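2024-03-11 09:14:02 DEBUG pipeline.ingest accepted 1 chain
2024-03-11 09:14:02 DEBUG pipeline.ingest length=406
2024-03-11 09:14:03 DEBUG pipeline.predict start
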Amino acid sequence: MSSLQQTRMLEQMTDEAVIADASFKPIDAHVVILNNYLRSHHVAAYKEIARRVRKLTVLLSVDMEPDRHWEAQWDGLDVIVQKSKMFTAKWRHSSGFSEDNFIHFPIDTRKQLKAINPDVILSYEMGVRTLLCSFYRMFHRDCRLVMVGNMSEHIERERGIFRKLLRKAILRGVDYFSYNGPSCKRYLNTLGIEEEKLFHFPYCIDPESVSDSPKVFNADTDRTLLYCGSMSSRKGILQFAKVAGRWCEKNADVNVRLNIAGAGELRDDIAELSSEKFKINFLGNCDQAELREAYRTADICVFPTLADEWGLVPVEAMASGLPVLGSIHAQSVEACVVEGKNGWVFSPNSNQEMESAFERCVRTSREKLAVMSIEAKTAVEHISPAFSANEACRMISTIVSNASRK
């Protein structure tokens, strides 16, 4: 059975069936994934990939970045934390936000790869990590290097001259490229990358954070909104709360409650906007069980980000049956949310547009929300760790097959 046939078999079988099927053999490749750190959705997808290849090794720059509020957990994966230098740079965007950006320099990359001797390398992003992998690739011609692209046009158009020069160098040393969504693919196309070198490697959701309880919506005069994420300027939550609060002052017939799951420096500013008609409730940093409960009790998920290369929250919310009020600057909103069908879309750069979308969502009847809930679940039902792993292994199978023919 060829590696491509193996991948197609996986796409048609449940995980339990794969384990039970004695005829299935993993793709004959030692795959190495290099990433900054692991989030729960990474772990879920990587475990599925590990089932489908001969061996999977994960190289991380750090066990966890300093602004993350959870502990590293990767039980069941072969993980090595590299020797790495981390630098903090200020990311300033024309949308009006600034944010700390952590830049990693995994100095022992070539040494680690030489010891592992991989067949296929998946290196995240077009930065120093991938450049170091390309140096290794230069002297190991049987190995293939994939740049894993998690990016969007909105973010990438403002990268500085140094990063643009770095990416030109990286393009020459990478064999294949993956994209996480339509905007990422369009950006890679602008770099002149041929279609045959492009593969879809999507994000997946963490199933443990998704509510599977039957969805019950509040009466038309009461709406509970949920925001999950950091309370930072990039996420747009302060401006959204200002717009929503003003609307509620002018429309006393609807009571709106905004639940916020997360933490951040804008908490006090947001808290000042709470009123009798627009009540803001802070849930703090939530674990998986608390997130499931937050999704269960909300009517609508809001995601007003000014810049997100993907955005997992809208997809998790939709999988939980929540229609999404989302920003056009989240790639997941572009890919999954359809105006009026399973959510509402707006530009966070326009208060007028944001207010119009807010009114459309809070004025939607509970009967219509129930229909939109079904549409939301249907739109994202395929987005799972197994689907992400299947797409990755389709890519790996093709790469291995192409290499064997040369």
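2024-03-11 09:14:41 DEBUG pipeline.report Confidence is low (pLDDT under 50) at residues 1-5, 13-20.
2024-03-11 09:14:41 DEBUG pipeline.predict end
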